[in-house]
Amino acid sequence: MKITKFIGMILLCLIGLNSFAQLTKTSFEVSGKCLECKKRIENSLKVLGVTSADWNVNSQILSVSYDPKAIKLNKLQKLISNAGHDTPKFRADQDVYNSLPACCKYERMTYSKSKNEGSANDMPGMPDMSGHSGHH
Ligand SMILES: [Cu+2]
């Protein structure tokens, strides 16, 4: 594959550039299934500011090196979700997900839309004192 050589060359160049830019490394979960997904995910981050993106098909963890002055973490995740893959912050559009090849139909990430911290029924003093169950 010629393209891998090409990408390799680009990566080598970018490693050279690393000494100039202040890079941030981060990793987060990206939903995907196969090597096609890996290509899609990594290609979605071939943008200015991102120096490397590597998605692990087994752990579903994406490792990214990027220049925080050029691109924000939210933007990274948005780009990936635009490509059809769920990220912790952005859910891929259902239509985009539907258009993925059959092999790529990963399990959707679950998002807790609104965390109702305070429960509606506030019960004062829950009688749950562990180790105090002795009746006399
Ligand atoms: Cu796939």
UniProtKB/TrEMBL annotation:
Cross-referenced SUPFAM superfamilies: HMA, heavy metal-associated domain (SSF55008)
Keywords: Signal
Protein name in the entry: Cation transporter
Signal peptide: 1-21
Pfam family, one: HMA
Lineage: Bacteria, Pseudomonadati, Bacteroidota, Sphingobacteriia, Sphingobacteriales
InterPro entries: HMA_dom, HMA_dom_sf
Coiled coil segments of this chain: none
Gene3D superfamilies, per database record: 3.30.70.100
Disordered, as annotated region: 115-136
Keyword Nucleotide-binding: no
GO function terms (MF aspect): metal ion binding
Positions of the HMA domain: 34-86
Organism from which the protein derives: Arcticibacter tournemirensis
